[in-house]
Amino acid sequence: MKFVAFERKLQGTGASRRLRIAGKVPGIVYGAGEPTNIELDHNALFHAMKKEAFHSTVLEMELDGTVAQVLLRDYQMHPFKQQVLHVDFQRVDNTTKITKKVPLHFTGEAESPAVKTDKCTVNHVITELLITCLAKELPEFIEVDLSGLTLGHSLHINDLKLPAGVKAIVHGKPNPAVATAVPPAAEEIIAAPVAAAADDKKGKKGKK
After folding, report:
1. Which structural domains are found in the chain, ordered by start?
2. How far is 61 from 67, CA to CA, in rounded Å?
3. CB 38: neighbour CB atoms within 10 A?
4. H runs (alpha helix) in the chain
5. Per-residue model confidence as pLDDT tens digits over 130-142
6. For the chain, which residues score pLDDT lower than 50?
7. Which of 29, 38, 66, 186 is 20 to 30 Å from 177 at the Cα level?
């Protein structure tokens, strides 16, 4: 994806406030040299950020006629307005090693024996994965094939087919679950209270 940024010459809280009033978003680009203060059109940025790829792929940023590869690293939103307050980007190239979270796309769930035969519900334990790789190898997402999931079993990180050059980073458990099959809840029989209520009615009639 490509977007256009402009160099931001004025800094400070007051300058940033005026930018936002004018429909702009202040930001910064760091890495591979001196940090550069930038500004972007708010509406264009807001719509771009609705796309998953804007958060998980290498982007092309055009600044003063020069195109650079960057990653979205952080952003701040207004507490209750649909307004982007600030964005951070990192410059990268093909030799830059990065650590970043990428989304998981689950497929084959409906065809799995757990769902199709045993009527299980599949619980997506995690929906994104922290990985490390070169910037040029960063995947937009990682596919999780659930077609082989069976009752009583889970799919773990070691079961995922990661793209070449991509390594998962885990903290705590060495091989945490990604998705698990949850069996359907047993139906409770509530006949006993009904019978008790009927006996109570008979007792009251006898007293009359």
Report:
1. 2-91 (2.40.240.10), 98-182 (2.170.120.20)
2. 5
3. 21
4. 13-21, 42-48, 52-56, 113-116, 191-207
5. 999 999 999 999 9
6. none
7. 186
